[in-house]
Write a structure and sequence with these properties.
The chain is mainly α. It is built from 27 helices and no strands. Helices cover 73% and strands 0% of the residues.
């Protein structure tokens, strides 16, 4: 089935990745600053592209395809809703992270709070992110590659899964182990453009099979409107009549109630509320705060507006071109819609291009794995090992410890992936597990009163409620009989509500952070929000030194946040409306207005 051109394309990428790892090994070995942050020397376009590449793995087009085929385009609001929260990173958060000059996002705990509780929380979060949240990501990425290889190689059963998973881990570790973050960002930069080319090539060939774009639009128009609508549709009764609007707000799948949770709750109160580990690592690795903000802007535009639409196009085309009987089934006997994407690759790409597409999947797979191997190692070394066990070793010692910890993380993830089946289930579970920490992550920047107990209580509540509802739901032999409030995303809203209630109560009942630590944090970061006392102190200090303190920063941040969201959503809807043949001028106007507002707020928002 594979042409020699296909093998050449795949082999070429493997050689390139290993060459990068070997070439950058000496530079990465100098210190943890090089091994985990590339010497804090990255320009915005390299750092931003690396975040995009890391957030796309072999699982991503499969998950998107499964959502579109089973629930429709609007199911993507599960992650599209996060663009609103992401706009906050563009206007201020990326700059604030770079000002702190941390290695991991867990390190902020001691910068912000101090004391024994903060020390313990930093160590716990370092271990938790390394061994739980990062490992879950690694697991679903390995699971996706397992599915892709099964379909592409037409394997008869799952007896080869161990070889697939083990080989993938060894390949990704082979250069991550050597080159650290230097190898990650260099291969990420190459991977993004290779993956984008492959996705566009498959979308082009799918369109040709349907008779060009006009034929594709006609074919899509024949599909169920629920599948092609970019916004949720009203619920329809069994008799085919529209139900009252209050009954139409059903809270699962692509219902309008689910949409409200995605955009109004999960969109900005999630585990990446103030950036997320991989993004924070790259913001910290930038040359300065201006490059960090540029990286955030480019990442969010590419992530929401540029990258997903070729996948969505192929998913819609597969509804017309792929017979359900050609797809494999899951353990419960249902059709594995996620497998439609690799099936389209196999059927509609010719020699050479098919190999490039497989190479792009391999590159995407490796870029995400190497990032999370490196980041998990950074958590364990920076926030656990060096902080608590061996604080005075030489830099090379920490680099080698980090390398061996990557091997440990790889083994854990491989074992979990071998026994997993559903990518989407892992994705939503990971969102809920630490989703309640999202509100606390924002409070740390915008409310001086937040303390270490704020985050401890939010984390404990989120984890307890999520696991409790998951166990309760699984206690029902028939899933449909479980209460609606145990289903995602309504369960997510309940988790967030419980976490906010507990953490605010705990915050007000526990002592505030020491004045000296708060003043130090404000002077270094200069955040906005409820920091009036420290802002006045800072302005007095600046004025005494002959400087002119910035005013109107809060208004600029608000305008920039709203404008950034308008820019992202306008650009996100634009290609989708064009692809489906819908009017697109309103999307263009929204994006233009957002760009103008963001430009006005850009310099004013960062004091």
């Amino acid at each position: 089935m594979f042409h020699w051109l296909d093998w050449a394309a795949i082999g070429g990428y493997v050689v390139f990745a290993l060459a990068v790892g070997t070439y950058m090994a000496r530079r990465a070995s100098r210190s943890t600053n090089d091994f985990y942050l590339a010497g804090r020397s990255l320009p915005w376009y390299v750092a931003g592209t690396s975040i995009v590449a890391t957030s796309f793995a072999a699982d991503t087009p499969l998950v998107v395809t499964g959502w579109v085929r089973s629930a429709g385009i609007s199911q993507n609001w599960l992650w599209w809703g996060m663009a609103g929260g992401g706009a906050l990173s563009i206007i201020v958060l990326a700059a604030w992270w770079r000002r702190l000059a941390v290695t991991t996002d867990a390190e902020i705990i001691e910068h912000r709070y101090g004391g024994r509780q903060a020390k313990a929380l930093r160590g716990f979060l370092g271990a938790y992110h390394a061994l739980v949240t990062n490992t879950i990501v690694l697991t679903w990425v390995l699971l996706a590659m397992k599915k892709v290889v099964r379909v592409v190689l037409e394997l008869p059963d799952d007896s080869y899964d161990g070889w697939i998973v083990g080989g993938g881990v060894i390949l990704a570790l082979s250069y991550s182990f050597l080159s650290g973050f230097w190898g990650v960002v260099i291969t990420d930069f190459f991977q993004f453009f290779l993956a984008l080319f492959g996705a566009l090539a498959l979308a082009w060939n799918a369109a040709e099979e349907l008779g060009g774009m006009s034929g594709a639009r006609e074919a899509f128009a024949e599909l169920d409107e629920k599948l092609t609508s970019m916004t949720p549709q009203a619920k329809i009764s069994a008799a085919g009549e529209a139900v009252p609007w209050w009954d139409a707000l059903y809270w699962t799948g692509s219902g309008f109630g689910a949409f409200l949770i995605f955009i109004g709750v999960q969109g900005w109160l999630n585990k990446n509320a103030d950036g997320g580990g991989p993004a924070v690592q790259r913001y910290s690795a930038c040359k300065d705060e201006h490059h960090a903000r540029g990286a955030a802007l480019w990442y969010h535009i590419a992530h929401y507006a540029l990258r997903p639409w070729p996948w969505i196009f192929v998913a819609l085309a597969s509804l017309v071109l792929v017979d359900l009987n050609a797809l494999p089934t899951l353990a419960d006997g249902s059709v594995d819609h996620e497998a439609a994407y690799p099936y389209m690759m196999k059927e509609f790409l010719g020699p050479g291009i098919f190999g490039l597409m497989c190479a792009s999947f391999l590159a995407a797979f490796m870029s995400t794995l190497d990032t999370h191997f490196n980041l998990a190692s950074a958590y364990l070394v920076n926030d656990c090992y060096r902080r608590f066990l061996a604080p005075n070793e030489n830099p090379r010692h920490y680099v080698w410890v980090g390398r061996y910890l990557e091997l440990l993380i790889g083994a854990i993830a491989a074992m979990m992936a071998y026994y997993s089946e559903s990518i989407a289930d892992l994705f939503t579970f990971s969102l809920s597990l630490v989703g309640g920490l999202g509100p606390a992550m924002l409070l740390r920047w915008f409310w001086w009163r937040a303390n270490a107990w704020t985050e401890i209580s939010a984390m404990a509540t989120s984890t307890t409620v999520t696991i409790g509802m998951t166990v309760y739901r699984k206690s029902f032999e028939i899933a449909a009989e479980a209460p609606a409030w145990t289903s995602y995303p309504l369960s997510y809203a309940i988790t967030i509500g419980a976490a906010i209630t507990v953490m605010v109560t705990v915050t007000l009942l526990t002592p505030p952070v020491r004045e000296e630590r708060l003043a130090e944090f404000y002077a270094k970061v200069r955040p906005v929000g409820a920091w009036h006392r420290y802002r006045n102190q800072y302005r007095t200090t600046i004025s005494a030194a002959g400087g002119t303190p910035t005013t109107g920063q809060g208004v600029a941040v608000l305008v920039g946040w709203i404008s950034g969201a308008a820019l992202l959503y306008g650009l996100m809807f634009l290609p989708g409306r064009w692809m489906l043949g819908d009017p697109w001028l309103l999307s263009l106007a929204t994006a233009a207005a957002g760009a103008l507002g963001l430009r006005w707020a850009w310099q004013r928002a960062v004091a």
